[in-house]
Amino acid sequence: MKHSHKTVYQIYPKSFCDSNGDGWGDLQGVIRKLDYLQMLGIEYIWFNAMFVSPQRDNGYDVADYRMIDPRYGTMDDFEQLCQEAKKRNIDIMLDMVFNHTSTEHEWFQKAIHGDETYKNYYIFRKGNADGSAPTNWQSKFGGPAWEYVESLDEYYLHLYDVTQADLNWENPAVRQEMADIVNYWRSKGVHGFRFDVVNLISKGSFEDDPDHFDGRQFYTDGPHVHEYLKELNERSFGLDEASMTVGEMSSTTIENCVRYSGANAHELSSVFTFHHLKVDYKNKQKWSLMNFDFLELKQLLNQWQIGMQEANAWNALFWCNHDQPRAVSRFGDDKKYPKQSAKMLATCLHCMRGTPYVYQGEEIGMTNAYFTDIQQYQDVESINFFNILKSLGKSEQEIYHILQERSRDNARTPMQWNDQPNAGFTDGTPWISLTSNYPIINVNNALADPDSIFYHYQKLIQMRKTYDVIAEGNYVPLFEEHLQVFAYKRTLKNEELYVINNFYGSPCLIQLPEACADMKILISNYSDTKAVDEMTLRPYESFVLYQSK
Ligand code: NOJ
Questions:
Q1: CA distance 92 to 74
Q2: What pLDDT is stored for residue 123 in this prediction?
Q3: Helix crossing, 453-466 with 338-350: angle to 10°?
Q4: The dihedral of CA 97, 98, 100, 106: what is its sign?
Q5: 344 ligand 1 Cβ < 6 A
Q6: In contact, 322 and 408? CB cutoff 8 Å
Q7: Ligand 1 atom 8: the closest Cα is on which residue?
């Protein structure tokens, strides 16, 4: 089956299923749940970083790229997982965190002890004459992006946490190390790779940032990034025709993504981009709240769909991941219309052009965590910003409200399997609190209800396999100015598909295009949808019409 027909499921291993009662998810836990994933119909599992790591940033601070963190299991467990997945027609995608390593990585340890070879693996710079950091850049997790090392009298760059030191991709030895790591996992039969913030690997000039003070203009989609990706492709995954890759692109452009993922670019198969997930950032600030801007959301998604299609490049499609709040709480209504709005969001996304990703728990409508105590938060970014917002004079009440909407921990609570203690995730003490609604929102309940969100996802995933128009059709936006409706058309040869979604909990009137008159309904989130030319869409009503002429 072609990649365009496949759906990927994302597992956050720490929170998926714990088989040994230590409160952490593990690989044996995942193996137990493979039948469930096969039933959902997905064909790839992307695992968040699960290599040896001090876990300052939950695995995105890698200390050994070739070893599974023992808390997840052994290499034998990993090999067993690959075999069991393969039996179920499921491939594995691993997370390559190549912009930085943990400061506990052997390379960094050698570097700070003065080994010149390894110092050149990282980005060390002298401070300014007055001793201040080389530039004014800010870390994405708050605070300065440079850390001083007294013994060397130099600073090293860390765009993320102080324990995540940026690698120096200008150094050919670093680039070869990265290709070797990919090849190591390829030799274990892995075909899928996700590359963490990979558009930040090529730093440009080291200057003070006069505009945003964060420096991103100097290292985002940097001067040699395309060259480096082509080289990595040529030396590693590009040698495997079956490979499937996705690059996580921070604050990027369509123009660059066309180059990253264009059909003949020889870089990556696809890209994750985030513009559509910033439409509720007030003044573009993650930690300032506002209601999402629907017209902007629609405009951005349409723009990316068309821009990538015109250049034959490929998007990853997603609402949720381990860094984002839960979509049903964010763009839907998790209180009044949890089922309808979760299904609407799924339909809207899964019928687009690109590869859909389902983040664990999304398929049963898991919501934000709504934690009420800072002790419940585990995420380094959330804790940093709790302190930063406090120092800016915000009240705790206000800060809790912001974290309840924005914290990455909203996505990281344990998978809700059943209504038993700890939602069936663990027999021990979970590493992070559960979301309290698990007695109602859980896999057992979802499987017992023929009308559940789970079966809606199952159907959408199947539809992509069945209808070429979903996997490969042309994308045309409809109702672009409508204040409530997100609609589009897909066409391929003699096939036509219309996707209509009411994004709000209030009804609205639309005039369907004439072509819809005799079309068949493939899926809907109401059991009695009737597509008539002038129709009132009910709260979050969403359906797909199809015809083959
Ligand atoms: C993006 C990852 O998705 C996120 O979880 C991580 O904190 C940063 N990259 C840094 O590696």
A1: 16
A2: 98
A3: 10
A4: positive
A5: no
A6: yes
A7: 60
Cα 236 from chain centroid?
Answer: 23
CA–CA–CA angle 61, 64, 68 (5° rounding): 95
Whether the CB of 267 sits within 6 Å of ligand 1: no
3-state secondary structure of 82: helix
Residue whose C-alpha is closest to residue 345's, from 536, 504, 511, 529 = 504
β partners of residue 125 = 155
Residue that has been written with the tokens 């808390």 in this structure = 71
State how far Cα 448 lies from the chain centre: 29
The tokens of 268 are what?
């990556």
Q: Which amino acid is at 205?
A: S
Question: What pLDDT does residue 285 have?
Answer: 93
Give me the pLDDT at residue 518, please.
Answer: 87
DSSP label at 122?
B
Q: What is the largest CA-CA distance in the chain?
A: 76
Compute, in angstroms, the gap from residue 450 CA to the centroid of ligand 1: 36
Rounded distance between C-alpha atoms, residue 395 and residue 180, angstroms: 49
At 2 the pLDDT is 79
CB of 57 closer than 6 angstroms to any ligand 1 atom: yes
Burial class (CB in 10 A: 0-12, 13-18, 19+), 382: buried
Give bridge partners of residue 260 from the DSSP assignment: none
CA neighbor of 196 nearest in space, from 101, 70, 91, 66? 101
Query: CA 515 to CA 65: how far, in whole Å?
Result: 54
**Cα 213 from Cα 138, distance rounded (Å):** 7
Ligand 1 probe mutation, 14, 53, 60, 158, most atoms within 8 A of CB? 60
* Residue 416: Cβ-neighbour burial (10 angstroms; 0-12, 13-18, 19+): buried
Angle between helices 172-186 and 225-235 (to 10 degrees): 40
Structure tokens at 347: 């339909």
- Residues with catalytic function: 196, 248
C-alpha to C-alpha distances, 295 to 303, 329, 479, nearest whole angstrom: 12, 19, 11
Percent of residues in the chain assigned helix, strand, coil, to nearest 5: 35, 20, 45
Helix (H) or strand (E) holding 246: strand 244-248
Please tell me the predicted confidence (pLDDT) of residue 181. 99
- Residue among 522, 549, 523, 527 nearest 538 (CA): 527
Distance in Å, CA 455 to ligand 1 centroid = 31
pTM (2 d.p.): 0.98
C-alpha to C-alpha distance for 416 and 549, rounded to whole angstroms: 43
pLDDT less than 50: residues of the chain: none
Which residue, among 359, 304, 308, has the nearest Cα to 330 in the 3D structure?
359
Angle between helices 254-261 and 225-235 (to 10 degrees): 20
- What separation in angstroms does the CA of 242 have from each of 3, 234, 238, 544? 9, 14, 9, 31
Residue environment code for 4-39, b if the CB has 16+ CB neighbours within 10 A, otherwise e: ebbbbbbbbbbbbbbbeeebbbbbbbbbebbeebee
From first CA to last CA, the distance across the chain in angstroms is 25
